Predict the 3D structure of the following.
Amino acid sequence: MTAGPGNAAPETAAQAPAEIASPRLDALTARGRAFLGSRHAIMAGAMSWVSERNLVSAISNAGGFGVIACGAMPPALLEAEIAATQALTARPFGVNLITMHPQLMDLIGVCRAAGISHVVLAGGIPPGPAVAAVTGFAKLVAFAPNHALARKLLRSGTDALVIEGSEAGGHIGPVSLAVLAQEILPALPEAVIFAAGGIGRGEAIAALVEMGASGVQLGTRFAASAESIAHPAFKKAFIRASARDAVASVQFDPRLPVIPVRALKNGGTEAFMAKQREVAGRLAAGLVELAQAQLEIEHYWAGALRRAVIDGDIEGGSLMAGQSVGMVTAEEPVAAIIESLVLGAEAALTRHSRAHEAPPLETAA
């Protein structure tokens, strides 16, 4: 799940991110920036096979907050990936762990030993022992698909939340970010909350932070960046795609709960339906237990994603992408993407501010 050794040198003062004047955005994201310890409150979504040392360090070095996607890595591989990332950046970054990983507690131990400052627990409600272990040495981030769970997570010790809409890529929930933001942000004004799902331009960031978000999380824009190790064919598929090409998978059998996955429609989409039918048939025949059947589905997705990202199989592999893929128009450096997002957000906030300050128009007598 990792690339070969990176070629970049550790960050020096000369490599520090260029200062972008964004006073209005900075003011609205002060809490998010302080929480992450980064110049901008732009958190990277963790994408298996993509969010490794090279992309993670590039995002952090450019002023964002990179996050390693642990996925199915064993502890030794995660340890090596963290060390390789630390060799490429002196800036903060986090690690995303999947709650269903059979060695979750060992992976948390690796993060503790490596001095990781932020751990993201994804793929389900974080178990109590994991929450207690992480909060003993790092800041904990978890995903909240609704207001009730958001409150529960905060009460249980979670330090920050990601509210991710169904527009996002990879595993998704059923509700759009437009609705989640209205439901959760006004109700939890003191919480550190990062909004995610379908964000591709600075104007969207401006609207979300004005609503109360502490920052944002993006994945799709970075997947096709110059620093991403994804295969050139994978990146070209992103550049050619429109928003409507990123479709959510369909659950074939209600007896086999499968978290929907958003990806670009291709032959792999049809193959997944066939895989579901096959596994559902064995489940109905009593040849496999439910938990094993669900894990088999997850392993299918992991393999299909690797074939697309690493091998360039864009027809049979899984091209996980959010609907913001329509805003990926070229392979750009990470620093240019972040600069564009920040400047776009600042310009939008400036326009909003000037509109509010403008005197009311005189009405005719």
